[in-house]
Amino acid sequence: MNDRPDYFTLIGQALGDRLELRDGAAPNELYLSLKPEALSSLPDIVALLTRSLGARFTTLVANDERALNGGFFLYYVFSAPAGDLFLILQVPVDPRHMEVPSVTPVLEAANWFERELKDWFGIIAFPNIYRLAVHPDWPEDVHHMLKDFRSDSAVPRVPGTFDFKRVEGEGVFEIPVGPVHAGIIEPGHFRFSVAGEPIINLDVQLFYTHKGTEKLAEGMDPRRAVFLAERISGDSSFAHALAFCRCIERLSGLEIPKRAEVVRTIVLELERLYNHIGDMGAILLDVGYSVGAASAFELKERFLSLNETLTGSRLLRSVAAVGGVRRDPEDAVPKRQALREAVVTGREGLERLYDLIMSTSSVLDRLETTGRLSRTDAFRLGITGMAARASGIDRDFRRDHPHCAYSRVRFQVAQQKEGDVLARLKVRVDEARESFSILEQLLQQHLGEALIAPVSPVPPGRCALGYVEGWRGEIVHWAMTGPGGELFRWKITDPSFHNWRALPVAVRNNIVPDFPVINKSFNLSYSGNDR
Amino acid sequence: MLKNFRQWGKVVTGSFPDKPGERPEGFRGKPVIDFPRCTACDRCAEACPTHAITVTSETAENRKDAEGRPQESGGRIVSIDYGSCIFCGECEAACPDTIHLTRELQPAVSDRKSLITRARYRSTGSGSWEFVEIVADAASDRQSIEEIGARVKARALELFGRSLHIREVDAGSCNGCEIEITALNNPVYDIERFGIHFVASPRHADMLLVTGPVTRNMEIALRQSLEATPTPRMVVAAGACAIGGGIFGKSYASCGGVDKVIPVDVYIPGCPPHPEALLQGILTAMDRFPSRR
Lengths: 531, 293
Fold this sequence. Notes:
The complex is a heterodimer of chains A (531) and B (293). Chain A has 3 domains: 7-126, Beta Polymerase, domain 2; 172-205, no CATH class; 213-530, Orthogonal Bundle (Cytochrome-c3 Hydrogenase, chain B). Helix content of chain A is 39%, strand content 17%. Chain A contains 19 helices and 15 strands. In chain A, α10 (333-358) runs antiparallel to α15 (421-442). Chain B is α/β, with parallel strands linked by helices and 293 residues long. Chain B has a 5-stranded parallel β-sheet, sandwiched between helices. In chain B, α3 (141-160) crosses α7 (275-288).
């Protein structure tokens, strides 16, 4: 790309004494390898990248490479502010010390990533040592992501209790909620500290749904791991599977047929539509507006049923494949008609629903100014995707890191400034409108062409990022292959892992009865977070 | 399909269970093996991501050695377990001549074994295998749906005074099952017309509807949920993960299925189960409640 600043020279000149620069397997990855003697300057370098350069933190990957080169490596992944480039800061960790300086003081967004690092790998980002990703009954010295831990090990439970933040004072009490919730939703524990109705503090304990997905994938044939990727977070089945497939394709340098890129874009937008519409219903249900909710759920059901007609699966499963797609949603005339029809009637249904909401003052009263997340907080916490766009952060991987067929369609990135529940609802509506427009632009393009690239062996010992903009936000995977082309390491980052941190900030000073609707307005994935 | 895109103001509720819904062309339903054509090689078993299909050597009880240990009979067993199946279609892709994904849903059962179809093969002596017989057959679709459709209303009335209260417990699912369970409440499936309600606490529930492979971190909460549920009660395991761990199996983080932790009355296959399969499974469970006298 011509408008890409020359980061290689830029960073090379500024930090050449501490970093070695090299290109990654995929064309838009630049690896910055930190020299071991410069480890103590890690926070300064991160501050330079994020504050001076304006790069945005995307994920942190740890990798046990002791069998390959005798050590551990951390990969801090940043999205460059212009020119579709990822900067990947590679940091060596000495296995005798298992410690790096924490970057949280300069980059709050990395906080949870560092805590997971300690729980899963035993690598301490000093002094950020608080437990996050394992429960209190998990032994202190067992780290399941180390290569010498077998996934079928039986790990004993040890005594321990959750350590929640306590708020003390006259009239302050705690409300424990979960892990089994009142609605049909995933498990997690919320601990509210309240004085009367207003929430003073919320602590969230997650990882109830941790299934060891990243560990299970180690040694697996990447083509088989696609099915695991579809089950990271059911509501983003396709987006996660696609992000993973793109990892493998990018590290193999595989060319994807044009038709497959179109199908992928269509299916991603179908996934966005059913979720955005369903969330509108869930928000309405949580403010007690049953008529609107029923309408939204009926509309969502139409799209689930459309998915079934087009792909054979209501959740768009078994469509993604390494090298392309397995199914074409437009391979028969009735399917093409159904899709065309759905764009027309779906758009009508959406507008009718939106008019209904905007003309019902009792609903608006509950949504406006509720659960506000300021732009400053959203930026500081590294909030991504739809929730970030509702707080005035202009960011969308579909535009900033074009993938699939997004560079060939016109669309607007939705923007709201208020950061309240209503803003998140409006962003959904605007994005659903754009989805209809994207679908319209893509219908019947490159029909009849190949759906999948010919099978070729996955090259050994390579790594690459795979990313898509799912309906919730940026889904970023990083995979590395082992000597036989099998998976050596697979890191999954669901946008929920960034965005869960927004919830305690957004609910503060709101009343307890508004918590459900604030929670729903983010609609975060527990399973995607816990993996 | 187009019929579903009706205008607002009209009835959108489906006609299940009187008339099961039609699944579209290309639906990823129950894979069926044409056993007489199958040569008991193991391409499909190799391709299956959840080991739902297995090809194993047969051990026959009647062939024992001097110490009474069972000996290999020389036969082979091809087995497909719809409880573990995630309906991905890899088996069909591996062996398109013999395996076909049908448009049928595998119905729920109360006996775990009724989700398995097995066939026996014998060696032809020249390194190939020949079909002998079907030794076990999984419950099939149409018969049970119609049967249950006729009985459900009467049973619901008899048992609960027209109502059944369900507490949904997510024991670590990917939230795919939750999407489909939530869909039961939408106007199209409208589960409340059967007198079935989802309630907020196990203390109000007659039935626990459990999803997910039961993660280590949900095991205790699941046991406690069962303890909090008054008797008589039912436990329904929904989805491949809940039935046997699904793609996650058993590991340091997963117990490998609900029945490894608490007793299960009914199993609903699918990944996730279609809303109609869920309805059918819940109705099957209602049929298993002891009569209230």
